[in-house]
Specification:
five-stranded mixed beta sheet; single chain; mainly beta; 182 residues; five-stranded antiparallel beta sheet; 14 strands
Length: 182
């Protein structure tokens, strides 16, 4: 699932958002196979060769509020209108892929400048204890209207959540999370 400006669904002014990975089936998923005749139609079908589990995915965006920071002796103002977008695909506790990036909409795509950026994926268990952090590279150059996307491949995680965090000039500016259940 590519991340694009069309995935922007967060309410303006939100500081963090979350989705449940186990409940969000992709719109493009194949229809669920018919329940075998031997299964009572009133009972949910169980995972079998005839009824395989459907891959799940979740995507969400968090609005990044306006802020000011210093880089290279310059004061840089970032207006509202930019979003941290985070997408996860997988099944149960297995993440197949995960991506996060920043895009700005409308005139903010030309007005926002991002320097010294990093995107990180933080993993926390059901007690909200962080047990792993995957840091992306530090992007020392300045980009207008975007922060380079970070992609990570397959991994098995604990039940809990995975969060994308946007760091600018050493300060966390936005967080977007997805809950992961069995």
């Amino acid at each position: 699932m590519p991340i694009s400006k069309t995935l922007i669904t967060a309410a303006v002014g939100a500081t963090a958002s979350a989705a449940v990975l186990a409940l969000a089936a992709p719109a493009s998923a194949a229809p669920t196979p018919a329940v075998p005749a031997a299964v009572d139609a009133g009972q949910p079908a169980t995972e079998t060769d005839e009824n395989p589990p459907v891959l799940r995915s979740a995507a969400g965006s968090t609005a990044i509020g306006a802020f000011t920071y210093s880089a290279g002796g310059l004061t840089i103002k970032v207006p509202a209108g930019c979003f941290l977008t985070h997408a996860v695909s997988g099944k149960g506790l297995k993440i197949n892929s995960q991506r996060a990036g920043v895009d700005c909409v409308g005139p903010m795509a030309l007005a926002a400048k991002f320097c010294n950026t990093r995107i990180e994926f933080h993993y926390a268990d059901t007690n909200n204890k962080t047990y792993r952090i995957d840091k992306g590279p530090l992007n020392g150059s300045c980009k207008t209207g975007t922060v380079p996307m970070l992609s990570k491949g397959a991994k098995t995680v604990k039940a809990g959540k995975t969060c994308a965090q946007l760091w600018i000039n050493g300060q966390r500016k936005a967080v977007q999370c997805h809950y992961i259940t069995k």
